[in-house]
Each structure stands twice: as structure tokens, then as C-alpha cells.
Amino acid sequence: MSYGPMHRKEDARFIRGRGNYTDDVRLPGMLYGAVLRSPHAHARVVSIDTSAAEALPKVKAVITGQTLAGLGLAWMPTLSQDTQAVLATDKVRFQGQEVAFVVAEDAYSARDALELIDVEYEPLDAVIDARKALDENAPVIRDDLEGRANNHIFDWDAGDRARTDALFEQADVTVAQDMLYPRVHPAPLETCGAVADFDKVTGKLTIWCPTQAPHAHRTLYAMVAGLPEHKIRVISPDIGGGFGGKVGIYPGYVCAIVGSIVTGRPVKWMEDRSENLMSTAFARDYHMHGEIAATRDGKIQAIRVKVLADHGAFNGTAQPTKFPAGFFHVFSGSYDIEAAHCEVTGVYTNKAPGGVAYACSFRVTEAVYLVERMVDVLAAELNMDPADLRMRNLLKPEQFPYHSPTGWEYDSGDYPRALRLAMDMIGYDKLRAEQADKRARGELMGIGVSFFTEAVGAGPRKHMDILGLGMADGAELRVHPTGKAVLRVSCQSQGQGHETTFAQIVGQELGIPADDVEVVHGDTDQTPFGLGTYGSRSTPVSGAATAIVARKVRDRAKIVAAAMLEAAPDDLEWADGKWSVVGDPATGKSMAEIALAAHSNLELPEGVEGHLDAVTVYNPPNLTYPFGAYICVVDLDPGTGQVKVRRFVAVDDCGVRINPMIVEGQIHGGLADGVGMALMQVMAFDEDGNHLGASFMDYLLPTSMECPSWELGETVTPSPTHPIGAKGVGESATVGSPAAVVNAVIDALGPYGVRHADMPLTPANVWRVINGDPFRTDLAIP
Amino acid sequence: MRITVTVNGQPHTREVEPRLLLVHFLRDELSLTGTHWGCDTSNCGVCTVQLDGVPVKSCTVLAVMADGHEVTTVEGLERDGELDAVQKGFVECHGLQCGFCTPGMLLTARALLDRVPDPDEGQIREAISGQLCRCTGYENIVRSIRWAAEASQKVAESEARQ
């Protein structure tokens, strides 16, 4: 068995400082780029004078939107079939938008040159509050799009409106709540950047860049720049965290490529932290109105939601084409609900583009937050315990596969078992008793429950694509004559430990040690095509491809083993990691023995080619549906509004766990995200569109002091569709935890009659809520 | 300006601009890319190195300020082919994922253990509180440093017995 805790292969380089991140790439003759950005949220570009910058001795090129327009590259397609300015030509549409690009001999000189570029702007009114984007007199942001007379992007709906509305009309009880899932940013510690190297002689373009989807990038570069795809090589080296923010192509990448083509030398561009926070993909920014209809005794019957989605200045969300709101329509959650309906309206605002980033599983995060907050609002209305109310409504194990009212087929689950385990682990009844005692003394503590169902591992390719590229992923496995193997996969780790877990899968399937398997990823010249790592899809898709390609190798090995044993293949069995004659384990041939024979002069049956290598493409038949039950305990100081997370129990069911150590690490990280989003993180703007979270002094991330010691539990319900029963786990905790923390805080505020307050629940916000005066967390404090 | 900085025991003399940051001196002049850059505002701590044994954020130290001083980077933790206990601890307890914060965390951990050989969880959390990790939720970093403390004590005890 190769599954189980195993130290990570990748650690050896990281603990020695021998990782190779994009900024560590250094090429002979390399130049350095820097981006000039807009100080305005919305302004007409009147003129750009680059002459003083160009006169600096160390400056090699200054590129503007006009330069790019001459090459047909001033605009590029986004992942949502919109267009985005690479460098502004007509207007700037958010603060921090790319305006010019300098290439110089060193990074400091490139920055110096930015100071010398003179841009004349004519400021325009900005649209900052998404709720005013569709006002009749709102300035039109995208006047570059022909015939566009307003800021409307799309209307989309899912579920059965008539049936849902009918249930609401007849319901005993209905509750409604407005809530904002504010704009946040994944803020990986490594910012974005690229090293581009165009070789004029061979015509080959090589780009090092921390991309979660190297193959998609290659194809898009080919489409955008008109370069032949076989002459493009994308290398995604070690990535210092991605979380969804490194899926798309950013203007700086295109500028680095153009810079290399123009100067004939390699060009490195690395953004700084402010650039990262101001211009790369944000997440969330959903204004939601949720409603639940239920019986008096707490049976939830229907749920409906209206969403106003702030997509920023360019619709750059990374999600399957069919679903402009991602998988938000999984919002009926983990409950047995008769009918559900959602409608989502997307609008442009003068903020950075993006929308699906930050470990959200294509907006399952927003969906889970919505339903889990609404269930607590209902519990308050019915005066029921929120855990009891959930238990009453959770799907039962016998209901799987479950067809949800918005069209999903949940694969497997035992939800009540997970919730019971979480309640037992935390000592739920005792905590409620403690809370009652404390309330009697005027002290505030809160207990927050959330239950989530994730939807991860996209495709199937028939239903899911990005810009027409179907979400299926390849794997290629070679077994060398001595039985050592090399696996090549299309997904790309940003810290998830693929080099270890994927080797474990191969080891498990072939009966060889995981240490004998090298995993190659992140280089389009060396790996098969696939859409990459996001939406928790590595294990569900590439992990499945890995198991299947290994089984193909094993099947080929069977034929070779049969020839070695002079037996018929049908007389062999796979036992203890060897092929042996049925009932005679002594005849067993190991993969190493078979591999050597497969490369030897052993006579093989007619038509069998020899060697053991195999390739496959995995097109998932369905998504996988990890789930979990989370309970958070907080203490709240009513004098300061300070919230302290005292305990957090997380029970996760992600199906079969390949490397439990890595799985738990993934969960820990996601739980910290939940604390951060619930209590600290927000990208707010003032009325002119000035970004108020453009550094780590303003955009607060959780440290070791805000995080409790996480308490994890597990149940295992294998996925019936995945070849090894795994479901994926990368984003589960980020999806499930914010609601648990917020529910705990609102529970603590029960004595004040508070039913809802928006994230982040900073001390100032909590204090204002206590005093009956909450504020919009995404706008400047009035 | 001409400066001499001793890095991982080796003196290095270079002509540098006064504005050059220590993090860039280490990375660009000495090719020690284990020290990372992350935020410019001393908040994230991925650039943490030891200056005369004290953890500092090298993005807010000028290279010229290190003139005549000793700097230890992650590349200097391994001695004679033997990993430092904190390096071993991070592997044992899965104290890293993407690896970007790891060098800084290791140097802070080393400095903590030099000062407090047997820290409790609270002391460890406080020691690393000026550094961010976006992957681990800190749990396994705390465990890794505890592991290193215990492993070092075992070594010290067995040496004392001999």
C-alpha cells in the first residue's frame, strides 16, 4: 500500500532555499520590466509622453497601448469571453490599471523610468457601488464595446422559479436577509510575474510564469499573439501559493512577451505587493438577498436568492463558459429542499477584473455562505438550535445519488454522521450550557455551525470548458527498464504536494515504492494537455487520470508477465503488487521484473509492442462532492468588539485520502482563510475608487495569533465515480469555514437581537453592530 | 558604496547603490534566492534573515546597513551536510506547502530556539506572529518548531549522558 502519511518529496528543496520560483529565474542578458499604473479609477487617457523615460541610459524600451495597438495586442480576451485592455488606449477603468511598460537593464532603473512617464488624464465619474451600476445616469464604463449603453453584463438564473414561488406563498414561515460577501483577494505570498524569452532565430517563445494552468496559457498566447502553438513553451516553476489568483493571463505577462520580442532579450517582470492586490484577480463581491420558506416545525421547503455580482471593469472571471455565476447554483446546499431558484445579475464597476479566485470552487463559497447564514437566520426566527435545525434537514445517506433542485447530482455522502461527529468532538451540549451561564453573567460567547457540500473536479468536458477548451486532463506514464517510473501530468501544484501524492497513486497501482516515481508537471513541452489546477480539480481529474494510466500500464504488464510465466493472461491475478498465476503467489512477477522483460528480447504475443508506457485523457463523468461539518467557538468582548476564535472543529469527508498528512494541511490552510475572511479581510474602496487595501498594512491577513489550534475529524465516503474514490479537498475548508465563524459571532451577539452582519467582523464593525449602526464593509466608512 | 557583508560565514565585498535593499543584495548580487521578497512593508516576513543572529526583514534593511555585519540565510542553516533541527521538523510535521514563507519561518524558528530552547505553543505563535503563511494555517509550523525543540533536547540529553 502506498497510501498513507508520507513525507513530501518537494520539501527537500524548499527547506534548503532551493525552490525555483519565477523570480529566481535568471537568464543571460535578461532585462527587467515595470508597469506604470493608473492613479484614477475612471479617466480618459488624453496623452502619454514617454520621451523622458526613453532618454534614461539604462532604459531599453517603453511600450504603451499605442505600441501594442500597432501589433494588434492592445486588448486581449478574458476567460469569460470579454476583452481586457493590456495597456490602456482610450480610458483607464480601475485604479491600478496597466498604462505603460518599461524595459530596462535592472529592476530599479525600470522603476525610475516609470516616474518620468507623463500621462495626462481627464478624470471621469466612477462607478464604485455595484448597486448603483445600473442607475440610468451611471457613467458607462465599457464604451469600448460596440453598442454598450450601460454597465450590465449578464442575467442568469437556475432552478424552478414557479415551483419555488408557489412554496413560498404557502409557507408557514419565511425569512429573508440581505448579505454581502465582500470583495477579497487571495494574496499568495509570491506575487505574479513572468520571464519571457523570445528566440528570434528559432522563433520559439519560452515563458516562465507562476500559472496554475500552463497549457491553457499556451493555447491562449497562440490565439492572442498569433504565434504558432508548437513554438510556445510555458514553464510554471515552483509557485508560491496560487489559490485561484494565478489562473488567468495578466497584462504584465503579455507586456513581458512583447518586451522580449521588441528588445530581442529575455525580460523579467515581477509585480510588487500593491500591484498584486490592486490589479490581479479578486474574489467574491456578491450582494445577495436570500429567502427561506419552511414549516413551523423547521422543515425547509424552498430557498431563493437574488444576486448582484460585481465583476469589475472587465469580465475576467475564470469559470466554465456555461455558468456565468460559476457553480453558485449549488446554493441549496446540503439539505433536502423541494425547490430552489436563483437569479444573478452581473455588472461592471470601476474596480479590478476577476471574480473567481481564492479557493472558491467556482463560487461554491458564496453559495455555502448564503445557505448557511440563511439557515441560522431561520433558526433564530423559529427559536431552534441551529445544529438541530440542520440535522432535521440534512440529506439522508439513502438519498444519494441526489438530484438537487438546481440540477446537480451529488455523488455520495453521509451528512448526519459528519455533523454528529463534529458535535461530539466539540462537546456541543456542554458548550451551549456554558454559553447560557456566561450570558447570565453578561459575557458573550458564540457557537457557529456550518455544513457544506462542495462541487469540484470539473468537467465533464461536455458541460464545462474555458474559452472552448474542454475540462479534461491528460496523463502519461513511462516505466523504465529497471522499474522506475515517470508520470507527466497537466495539473500544476502551488503547494499541494502533487509530486508526492501522485507518486503514491502510481505506487499503489503498480506495486512500486512512491519514491520510485518522478512526477513531472508545470512545463508544456514535457506534459500532456490539460486545464490545470483550480476548483480543487487536481485529485478529482488529474489524480483520476493518474490512476487510469497506471492501470493501463498494469494491464500491459499483465500480458508481458503472462509471456514470462508461459501462462495465459486470463490465468493471472494481481495480488500483493505482482502479477502471479491464480492461486500461486510464488510465481509473482514484480513491476521491475516485468519492466525489464518488456524491454528485453522476450517473445511477446503477436501484436504486442513491448515496453510499458501509456497515455490517457480523463474526462470526468460527474463532479465530485466533498462535504463537511464545521463548528466554531468564539469569545467576544462587547467593550471593544474584539472576537477571539477559541476553538474550531472541522470534520471533512473528501472520500479516500491518499496522503492524510497533506489532506490535513490543506484543511488547516482553508480554515485560516475562513477566519481571515470572516474577521479581517476586505478590499474596500472610497467613493472615487481609491483602493483602501493595497498593502498588507491595510489588507489584513490572519497570523498565528488569530488562528486557534485546529481540531480535525474525518469520515470517508468514497466517490462512486472516481477510480480511487477520492473527492478532492483543496478548497473545502475555505468554502465551509467563513460561515461557521460568522455564525459563531452572530450567535454571540444573540442578546442584542442581531441576526446578521456582514464580513469582515472587525472590532470596529462588531462594535458598530452592537450599537445598532453597522456599516458597509466594502466602502469607505461614512 | 563599497560594503563587506559576511553571509553564512563568507565575507562578500560589493559596490552597491545606497538604496539597494538587503533582500535584493542577497538575491541578485549573491544569487542566494532562498530569501524571498513578498510585500515591501515588513508585514509578510518571507524575506526574514538573521542579522547578527536576530531575525530581521531584509526588505526593510538597506544592504549598506549590513556592512560589517553577519547575515544568515536559509542556505546557511545546513552545516556539514547535516540539516538543522528546524529544517527536519518542517519536513516531519508538514510545516510547509508552497515553501515561499518557509525560509523566513526557519530562520525565526532557529532564533527562537537559540533563545528559548523549550518554547510552549504560545511562545512559538508569538515568535512567528510577524510572518504570514497562506497555506498551513500555522498549525503544522507550530508543531514543526516544537518537534525541533524536542529533537534538539533529545540530542542534548544523549550527549550529556555520554
Automatic annotation (TrEMBL), chain A:
Q: Which keywords belong to this entry?
A: Molybdenum, Oxidoreductase
Keyword Signal applies: no
Q: Where is the Aldehyde oxidase/xanthine dehydrogenase a/b hammerhead domain?
A: 16-125
- What's an example of a GO molecular-function annotation for this chain? molybdenum ion binding
Q: What is this protein called?
A: Carbon-monoxide dehydrogenase large subunit
Task: Cite the PANTHER family for this sequence.
Answer: ALDEHYDE OXIDASE 1-RELATED, XANTHINE DEHYDROGENASE
Q: Which NCBIfam families match?
A: CO_dehy_Mo_lg
Keyword Oxidoreductase in annotation = yes
Pfam families on file: Ald_Xan_dh_C, MoCoBD_1, MoCoBD_2
TrEMBL record, chain B:
- What's the short name of a Pfam family annotated to this entry? Fer2_2
Keyword match Oxidoreductase: yes
Q: Which GO terms describe its molecular function?
A: 2 iron, 2 sulfur cluster binding; metal ion binding; oxidoreductase activity
Please give the InterPro entries that the UniProt record associates with this protein. Answer: 2Fe-2S-bd, 2Fe-2S-bd_dom_sf, 2Fe-2S_ferredoxin-like_sf, 2Fe-2S_ferredoxin-type, Beta-grasp_dom_sf, Diverse_Oxidoreductases
Q: Does the keyword Protein biosynthesis apply?
A: no
According to the entry, every stretch annotated as the 2Fe-2S ferredoxin-type domain falls at 1-77
Recorded protein name is (2Fe-2S)-binding protein
Source organism = Nonomuraea turkmeniaca
